[in-house]
Amino acid sequence: MKTPLRVAVTGAAGNIGYSLLFRLAAGDALGLDQPIILQMLEITPAMKGLEGVAMELGDCAFPLLHDMVLTDDPTVAFNGVDWALLVGAKPRGKGMERKDLILDNGPIFVDQGKALNERAADGVRVLTIGNPANTNCLITSSHAPDIPRKQFMAMTRLDHNRSMSQMAEKTGTQTAEIKNVIVWGNHSSTQFPDIRHATIAGKPAPQVINDDGWYRDQFIPRVQKRGAEIIAARGHSSAASAASAGIDTVHTWNSGTPGDEWVSMAVPSELGSYGAPENVYFSYPCRCKNGDYEVVNGLDFDDFGRDKFKITGDELVEEREVVKNLLGVKQLQG
Ligand code: NAX
């Protein structure tokens, strides 16, 4: 049996946590031979609810769940952690854009960045899910000068998965046949879901779809605003699908991407050679191997794509400006 890995989940008593924790404990992210210790962080008023979640986790008798830590102290939650999934933050309510949340949620990530720096294991990998995810990732990493920027990532896998689902529906295919979609930029309504290099059953996706009007006027806005569509229908923001995308991200980051395939991950912008703004976390196509990842560089754009790329990059710069007083010392040099 392998040595257990310590996995921190913040916002553990929230909606995403309620789906994410059980799949982590079942081995869906790190493997069916990898025991884990869940270190769950909540704010003090939510600790009672967290105790209930822990009771249910216990009642599942997961063989891989070796221990649980429940705390409202980030330095306890991040003590010795190999993975940290930063979910805890306010979700968008009806009609809110992510930018409205930025100043509410930003300070959380200052403290958590410091606690990670002080307490996490060497080699910790940190996934930011709480919104605005890219900018929260920047804040967290900027307060963790001893942890390389590359070990932080913001989640755009949900947008990637949403794109695949829309393409499968349009073409009457299965998502398993759809490869190499790209989500560029910010996890927000400016993101650019790009099918130019994607394939469907091995053929170029733009040829199979053969409907540029659908791509530009329906597909892109629908993926960009899918979060709002879910809120309008459910009255709550996406939770199980977000948790599933979190599991997918950790799984891929840890165990790799098959063959030439890539997935979308928001990583330090300087790792890409596409002219994205410096010092933001920007979603790129990434290949993963041996627990590490690299950005797939050298893909081309048409003019339409180039414009979309710029819009989402500009928004990330605006968000960085909004939080500039929350940024720590470590920025580009990490
Ligand atoms: P919930 O409100 O259900 O849960 C959030 C939990 O975080 C609550 O239990 C709250 O007590 C806790 N929390 C708040 N501040 C905390 C702190 N300082 N430390 C620890 N815990 C804290 O929201 P939920 O639906 O779970 O969504 C969580 C976050 O994910 C939101 O910011 C949401 O917008 C974001 N999302 C991100 C997505 C992505 O693709 N990156 C998609 C889904 C989701 O919208």
Descriptive terms for the model:
alpha/beta; L-2-Hydroxyisocaproate Dehydrogenase, Chain A, domain 2; Rossmann fold; 3-stranded antiparallel beta sheet; 334 residues; 2 domains; binds ligand NAX
Radius of gyration: 19 Å
Count of DSSP E strands?
14
* CATH superfamily grouping of the largest domain: Lactate dehydrogenase/glycoside hydrolase, family 4, C-terminal
- Continuous helix count: 11
Contiguous uncertain segments of 5+ residues: none
Our estimate of the beta-strand percent is: 15-25%
CATH T-level fold name of the largest domain: L-2-Hydroxyisocaproate Dehydrogenase, Chain A, domain 2
Shape, per Cα inertia axes: globular
What number of domains?
2
Q: Under the CATH scheme, which architecture of the largest domain would be assigned? A: Alpha-Beta Complex
Which CATH C-level class of the largest domain is it? Alpha Beta
- Mean pLDDT across every amino acid position: 95
Termini Cα gap: 35 Å
Please provide a written account of the structure.
This protein is an alpha/beta fold and 334 residues long. It folds into two domains: 5-154, NAD(P)-binding Rossmann-like Domain (Rossmann fold), CATH 3.40.50.720; 157-319, Alpha-Beta Complex (L-2-Hydroxyisocaproate Dehydrogenase, Chain A, domain 2), CATH 3.90.110.10. 42% of the residues lie in helices and 18% in strands. It contains eleven helices and 14 strands. The chain has helices at residues 15-26, 47-59, 74-77, 98-119, 133-142, 157-171, 205-209, 212-224, 226-234, 240-255, 303-322, and strands at 5-10, 36-41, 65-71, 83-86, 125-128, 152-154, 178-179, 182-184, 192-194, 199-200, 203-204, 263-268, 281-289, 292-295. Helix 4 packs parallel to helix 5 and helix 6 (157-171) runs antiparallel to helix 8. The relative contact order is 0.14. Bound molecules: ligand NAX. Ligand NAX binds at residues 10-11, 13-17, 41-43, 46, 87-92, 108, 129-131, 133, 155, 158, 187, 227, 237-239, 242.
